[in-house]
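In the design runs reported in the main text, the only information available to the sequence generator was the tokenized backbone. The following block is the verbatim input for one such run; it is reproduced so that readers can re-run the procedure and compare outputs position by position.
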């Protein structure tokens, strides 16, 4: 059964996503991040701007196998490329649509910013996951 964690009202979305990925990585878990190219580029740059002591290993799904095996975070624009070859503990969705196939990943994370479009698309994904019978956890970051 897939567990979906929605993190709503992220005040500074990219900073929050970086801290969340650092936390998940610190737990020894591999995370696949899927999203549009511009969002992945923004995340990639944000991860490089973390404090050097907080650096998390990350790479693109198209990088060489040696780098992929040593990275805790894999960035990819398509879900199929993530689920094809990587053993992932967690998936993070930056797309505005629900993923079609999570492979064997048991946990999916959705981070939702304060923008109305982000909230509207998150509601549609929530409905989709509910119909799939996934367990959904809600974390309101405005509190």
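Verbatim output:
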């Amino acid at each position: 059964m897939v567990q979906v964690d929605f993190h709503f009202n992220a005040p500074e979305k990219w900073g929050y996503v970086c801290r969340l990925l650092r936390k998940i990585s610190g737990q020894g878990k591999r995370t696949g991040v899927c999203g549009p190219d511009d969002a992945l580029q923004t995340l990639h740059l944000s991860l490089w701007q973390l404090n050097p002591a907080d650096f998390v290993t990350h790479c693109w799904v198209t990088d060489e196998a040696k780098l992929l095996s040593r990275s805790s975070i894999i960035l990819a624009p398509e879900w199929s490329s993530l689920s094809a070859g990587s053993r992932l503990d967690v998936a993070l969705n930056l797309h505005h649509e629900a993923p079609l196939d999570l492979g064997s990943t048991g946990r999916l994370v959705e981070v939702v910013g304060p923008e109305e479009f982000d909230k509207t698309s998150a509601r549609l994904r929530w409905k989709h996951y509910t119909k799939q019978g996934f367990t959904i956890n809600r974390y309101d970051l405005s509190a």
